[in-house]
Amino acid sequence: MKPQLSDNLCFALYTASNALTRAYRPLLERFDLTYGQYLVMQALWLEDKVSLTELSRQTRLDPGSLTPVVKRLEGKGMLTRTVSSEDERRKVIALTETGQALQQQAAVVKSELEQKTDIDPQVIDTLRRHCLTLADQLAKV
Amino acid sequence: MKPQLSDNLCFALYTASNALTRAYRPLLERFDLTYGQYLVMQALWLEDKVSLTELSRQTRLDPGSLTPVVKRLEGKGMLTRTVSSEDERRKVIALTETGQALQQQAAVVKSELEQKTDIDPQVIDTLRRHCLTLADQLAKV
DNA sequence: GCCAATTAGTTAGCGCGCAAATCAATAGCG
DNA sequence: CGCTATTGATTTGCGCGCTAACTAATTGGC
């Protein structure tokens, strides 16, 4: 067996991540969401009325990436961005009723995708945890 | 423990992949390469003089994504793109001497990154293989 | 041999993810 | 108090990754 791209973890990870967002695309289309937007919505479903910096910490995404995503979600009526009264530098990002209601509707998406990949749940869990520790270690550099 | 974004495999994978390209950036900077360009170079180091379609198969990247990347690498003098004589639709992508020579110089990059993450090699290998099977399963949909 | 179908590659448009530069508001220190 | 340093958020510029639409070359069926 001669050496292959798939021998490298970085390739495997990159490929899996691309495959994931590709697989999510058709499922999220009916909600008019991209994967990045869906990620932000998930964060807000877990904790509403947060600042952009807090959202950045939770999603592990750059504020510069987040601003346009949040603006687009605002444009779709999913959330509001209001200047904080305590600290006028901050913007409080809060779900609208539409944004809250979407949580129930979008709940099927995850299970739809899981159905299409029949991987042992325990494998999924170790994969998940190993990805997180890797991400942490890479971030520490 | 209340539910978190990191409970989801998709989040873990997405985060790890972003962290990876972020970690590669400073290491590849001195070669004037992005991670995507480095990936294409790796593919060519393994098999030179291939068509764009073949490169697309090996890198698991869309031809539409690949064309501009390959053009940029051509602009940097790393490779040439010549129309195939047998089939004039095809373009043969071939490394230049500069492109070939880069392989030795860039060999350090991988080990540099490995040093910064002290994860059990066996864990890396299972992580790698699980990512590949996940990617395959997601692609089959 | 001809014409429709397929295949190879490109282009345009969109939405990222990030770094760097910028601006406004607040904190902190003398 | 006043001035600097820090913090929160935005903007700009770049390079992706993908879809869809397109062009050009080749294949295949009749």
TrEMBL record, chains A, B:
<protein>
    <submittedName>
        <fullName>DNA-binding transcriptional regulator, MarR family</fullName>
    </submittedName>
</protein>
<keyword id="KW-0238">DNA-binding</keyword>
<dbReference type="GO" id="GO:0005737">
    <property type="term" value="C:cytoplasm"/>
</dbReference>
<dbReference type="InterPro" id="IPR036388">
    <property type="entry name" value="WH-like_DNA-bd_sf"/>
</dbReference>
<keyword id="KW-0963">Cytoplasm</keyword>
<keyword id="KW-0805">Transcription regulation</keyword>
<feature type="domain" description="HTH marR-type">
    <location>
        <begin position="6"/>
        <end position="141"/>
    </location>
</feature>
<dbReference type="InterPro" id="IPR000835">
    <property type="entry name" value="HTH_MarR-typ"/>
</dbReference>
<dbReference type="GO" id="GO:0003677">
    <property type="term" value="F:DNA binding"/>
</dbReference>
<dbReference type="InterPro" id="IPR055166">
    <property type="entry name" value="Transc_reg_Sar_Rot_HTH"/>
</dbReference>
<dbReference type="GO" id="GO:0003700">
    <property type="term" value="F:DNA-binding transcription factor activity"/>
</dbReference>
<dbReference type="GO" id="GO:0006950">
    <property type="term" value="P:response to stress"/>
</dbReference>
<keyword id="KW-0804">Transcription</keyword>
<dbReference type="InterPro" id="IPR036390">
    <property type="entry name" value="WH_DNA-bd_sf"/>
</dbReference>
<dbReference type="Pfam" id="PF22381">
    <property type="entry name" value="Staph_reg_Sar_Rot"/>
</dbReference>
<dbReference type="InterPro" id="IPR039422">
    <property type="entry name" value="MarR/SlyA-like"/>
</dbReference>
